[in-house]
Amino acid sequence: MGNTVSRIIETEILVVGGGGAGISAAIGAARSGAKVLLVSKGQVGNSGNTIMIGGSFAMDGHSAYYDYGIKEADKDFTKADLYESIIKDGFYINDQNMVEQFVEESPAIVYEVVKWAEEAGKPFDFGLPATWWMSGRMMGSALKQGLSSTPGIEHISDVAVLELLSDGDRVSGVLALELNTGNFVQINAKAVVLATGGFQPFSLKSTNSDMTGDGVAMAFRAGAKVADMEFLLFLLTALEPQDIVGSILPLMLVTMPTFKYVATDRDGNELTMPSQLKEMETKSEICKLLHMVYYGKTVSSDKKTDKGGIFLKIIGTEEETNQAFDETVELFRKFYKEGFYHHNDINKVRRMCLEKGTWEVGLGNEYSVGGILVNEKMETTVKGLFAGGECASGVFGANRVADAVTEMLVQGYRAGITAAEYAKTAPACGCGADSGNAVAEKLMKVLDNEGGILVNEAVRKFEAISDKYLNCYRDGEGLRTAIKQYEELEKELENATVLCKDMAYNTELMGLIALKNRLLCSKLAAYMAEARKESRGLHLRLDYPDIDNKNYLVRTIAQKDGEDIKLSTREPIPGKIAPPDYDTIEYERYLLETGIGLENLQD
Amino acid sequence: MKVKVLRTLPEEHYDEFTVPFPTDGEYTIMDVLRYISENIDPTLAYFSHAVCNQGICGRCAVKCNGKVVVACITHADCEELVLEPKNNKVVKDLLCQ
Ligand SMILES: Cc1cc2nc3c(=O)[nH]c(=O)nc-3n(C[C@H](O)[C@H](O)[C@H](O)COP(=O)(O)OP(=O)(O)OC[C@H]3O[C@@H](n4cnc5c(N)ncnc54)[C@H](O)[C@@H]3O)c2cc1C
Ligand code: FES
User: Fold this and answer.
1) Domain A437-540 sits in CATH 3.60.15.10
2) Whose Cα sits closest to atom 21 in ligand 1?
3) CA distance linking residue A248 with residue A261, whole number of Å
4) Which one-letter DSSP state was computed for residue A127?
5) Of A120, A228, A346, A397, which sits most exposed with the smallest number of CB within 10 A?
6) Which residue of B has its CA nearest to A503?
7) Residue A50's closest chain B neighbor by CA?
């Protein structure tokens, strides 16, 4: 143990993050001939939102049918259809070079992962149009199968990367903390790939607790541009029974045609949506956005329930409700112990719903659309730094309906290949031990603080700000308050006090590092949300309810400018789909008339 | 409920906490650990850096009243809990390698 770097590791490519994007990146880089080290805060293949997966991932049906010989696939669902859907569902601010990369390159890696699952003895389950259903655990074993069958990759778990190290104008290493020993390790690399996943600002969690935006925050601090962070995807999440709080089982139920319900506020007032949209609930994952739009206002108001959500009031007959639960049990029977979703007891929820006639649910934040700005090769705006998966941005525009799992695989794999190409001609890392030591020593100073805010208290404060002002519906005044309060809290954290001075698995210190990153990401999200004076996709403004293409058909970008944040906008990179030719449109009209909603729930 | 937890610093001993949860089987052992950490003693070490909280990763296992259980899916349903590390490869408190 020591307050300076205990050892220096040299590698060619460093991949940060042991979820799907990180493992794919490591494999992509190793296959391109590079020496790869994969480092992960959680366990490689057993952490991140990758293991939280509760549904499916896909490729276009045409490729599945013709290129991979899958005769059950819907061959009429083409790459062009998928491409167009992603743009419409993204409210036209997707970078179309990113969409092209997603659509063109995903079939190969999706198919390969399906094969790894078979080799691992835990095959996925096929559905239409060309979708594979599985659990997060099964995805983890498929990825580990791919990893172990690829030579040239070393990996270490339970090591958190704290900061990127620069050598002149390029990133060429990191400072990391071995969580169990408390030792600092410097890793020198020719190229660094970030695959650290998203960020989660709120108190209700359906995500893995390692979703603290570390990669996005580190990249920003290293001078990289980040974008689109105002777009956060929420979905129906259990608030009861207590032992499954945070589960996304409610979403699974409402996508069953036999589950008949109406949403109500705390007083029983019904929250309705147009029937044409309600019909999409069982066909497309656009339902997540619809729930935000039509139920989110209640969650952001004093009409919310005691636990901060809404009620699903069961209006089907007992027979229908039983059938919905039976179908849910059947859907997941192949992946979990019979009667369970992950470890949620489906029949206990069934009994509760039948007895009470209601289910109290919230809107939990599942996914961050924004993140590090990359191009179609997964190059960030800083030399030597690459990113892919949920920590990156660009492909889904203002809203995601297509699969994040496909995104993590296709972007991770490409990031690995590009990083390996770059490393072929990049000079060796020039970071001396000094650069790591400086970061480590700064961090260790925290242990000297006394009498300041405790980490747990700061986390509570932070989440309360996010819950109140950055939730589904926002307004300008609230967002400005959020920014002010986030900044005050940032100041307060300078004197945050860690009571435990022992460095081995120091939960408080780990919590403080994570909180600072979450706070930075959320502050950037609030800045971007405040600047976007319209509603679009997952960004819903009470004070600007319409979509404003005249002024905001743009991506919002942030970059560090000394100690300040420099915000800018740019038009999305054009492609096959022309931008809309109207200036302003009511949000609901867009939903009704644009043909949004990739149909990815049919089976 | 009363919760006795094996601590490793400065040397091995048990700390006793009172946690205001009903024992009707709704709260999990992970909820109990989080409660202690967030409200009573933040220095407690238990698995907290990549928590799925859904019984997926299997990494939060602890010994509860002598039996190894997965903390985030096991109900804290008795008046007195004794929590100890799941094996003898202890890093700190309840956290094992
Ligand atoms: C409940 C739930 C269900 C979902 N279901 C689906 C679904 O059915 N279909 C779908 O398409 N998408 C789904 N998603 C979204 C999808 O799972 C994620 O977007 C995707 O898995 C992200 O992959 P990733 O590799 O980019 O990041 P993650 O899987 O989150 O991995 C990030 C990795 O980085 C590590 N890490 C983080 N910080 C650091 C650091 N500082 N140093 C080192 N390592 C670090 C983490 O430990 C982890 O290993 C779901 C998400 C949730 C929350
Ligand atoms: S935290 Fe993953 S199983 Fe308990």
Assistant:
1) no
2) A50
3) 17
4) E
5) A120
6) B92
7) B52
Query: Is 70 exceeded by the pLDDT of residue A602?
Result: no
pLDDT at residue A603 tops 70 = no
Partner residue opposite A242 with nearest CB, options B26, B42, B48: B26
Pocket of ligand 2 (CB under 6 A): B 51-53, 55-60, 70-72
Nearest Cα to Cα of residue A416 among A189, A155, A194? A194
Q: Does B53 touch chain A (CB under 8 A)?
A: yes
Per-residue pLDDT averaged across A305-315, rounded?
Answer: 97
Number of other CB atoms surrounding residue A449 within 10 Å: 15
Nearest to A497 by CA among A430, A452, A533, A458: A452
Helix (H) or strand (E) holding A80: helix A79-89
pLDDT value of position A427: 86
Specify whether the CB–CB gap between A358 and A312 falls below 8 A.
yes
- Comparing A403 with A596, the larger pLDDT belongs to A403
Domain chopping of chain A, boundaries? 234-366, 437-540
Q: What are phi and psi of A267, to 5 degrees?
A: -95, 5
Dihedral sign (CA A29, A31, A36, A41): positive
pLDDT-derived band at A430, boundaries 50, 70, 90 = confident
Instruction: Give ipTM to 2 decimals.
Output: 0.97
Q: How far is the CA of A136 from the centre of ligand 1 (A)?
A: 10
Q: Whose CA is closest to A415, among A5, A18, A111, A23?
A: A23
Contact A141, A120 (CB under 8 A): yes
Q: What percent of chain A has pLDDT over 70?
A: 99
| Partner-chain contact B53 A456, CB within 8 Å | no
Identify the residue whose tokens are 């979450």.
A518
DSSP A18-42: -SHHHHHHHHHHHHTT--EEEE-SS
Chain A residues whose C-beta is within 8 A of a chain B C-beta are: 41-43, 46-48, 51-52, 135-137, 158, 160, 179-180, 205, 208-210, 241-243, 246-247, 342-344, 454-456, 459-460, 499-500, 502, 504-508, 510-511, 514
Token pair of A428, please? 């060796």
Q: Cβ B51–A208 below 8 Å, yes or no?
A: yes
Q: Which of B26, B38, B95 sits opposite A241 (nearest CB)?
A: B26
Q: pLDDT per residue over A334-345, tens digit each? A: 899 999 999 999
Q: Which residue of B has its CA nearest to A509?
A: B43
Residue B53 to residue A209, Cβ atoms within 8 A: yes
- Mean pLDDT, residues A508-516: 97
How many C-beta atoms lie closer than 10 Å to residue B56's C-beta? 24
- With 80 as the cut, is the pLDDT of residue A433 above it? no
Binned at pLDDT 50, 70 and 90, residue A1 comes out as very low
Which one of A205, A507, A513, A518 makes the best mutation probe of the B interface by having the most chain B beta carbons within 10 Å? A507
A41 and B55 in contact by Cβ < 8 A? no
B2-87 architecture in CATH? Roll (3.10)
